[in-house]
Amino acid sequence: MRHRHLFLIVIGIVLLAGCDNKAPTATLPPVVQQNNPLSSSTLPTASAPVPTNGPREYGTEEVTVPEAGTIVPPATEDPQAGNLFDSVALDRTGGVGAKPLDLILLKDGTLTRDGVISNIPADQVKQISDALDKLGIFGLQGVFQGAGTSPDNFTYYLTVEREGASRTLTAQEGFIPPELASLLKTLQQLGA
């Protein structure tokens, strides 16, 4: 037992003897101040290597994130607006004691609601398609969900497909703007 303690003490002394009590120092490159903005002649080109040291310049434009529950309309007009969607799928989860909703509507009016197939009239399909176009579903932006929401609130997953394009929106109760809420209400009433 004494040999073991003695051995550990000797190892500790050897390790401490190898330590240098001086604090490590680092040599940093000199800071270069540049008061002139970059001109096109100082920008790197495809043939010139991009410098990896020296000062960096970053854009100063402000990025604004929309407030949760606010729709930002599309910046450009949808060239496919007016064409019927191929399919609209709505899945709803959450809610206190509510059962999930699984709904798929095809452009021919075929509706599948929780596995039960039925049909809706063509004018109702056109009304839903017009509501999707009015929202600008393929280009709209916004934040429709928040962090830390309760599983007791509904969460909606809306997927629209049209002519090879697809768009899915996720929206949580409490973060849904009125325009989107109206569409979700219309869809939830289909086949009920």
Q: Which whole number gives the mean pLDDT?
A: 78
Instruction: Give a short account of the largest sheet.
Output: 6 strands, antiparallel
Overall body shape: elongated
Tell me which oligomeric state these chains represent: single chain
Structural class: alpha+beta
Number of strands: 8
Strand numbers in spatial order across the main sheet: 5-4-3-2-7-8
Residues in helix, %:
10-25%
Tally of contiguous helical segments = 3
* H-E string: HEEEEEHEEEH
**Euclidean distance between termini CA atoms:** 82 Å
In terms of DSSP E residues, the strand content is 15-25%
Unreliable sequence segments: 31-44
Integer-rounded radius of gyration: 31 Å
Describe this structure in words.
The chain is α+β, with helices and mostly antiparallel strands. It has helices spanning 2-18, 122-135, 178-189, and strands at residues 71-72, 87-94, 101-106, 110-113, 116-119, 141-142, 154-162, 165-172. Strands 5-4-3-2-7-8 form a six-stranded antiparallel beta sheet, covered by helices on one side. A hairpin with a 2-residue loop joins β4 and β5 (116-119). α2 (122-135) runs antiparallel to α3 (178-189). The model is unreliable at 31-44 (pLDDT under 50).
What key attributes describe this structure?
six-stranded antiparallel beta sheet, 192 residues, elongated, 22% strand, alpha+beta
Quick overview of this protein structure:
About 20% of the residues lie in helices and about 20% in strands. By secondary structure, the protein is an alpha+beta fold.
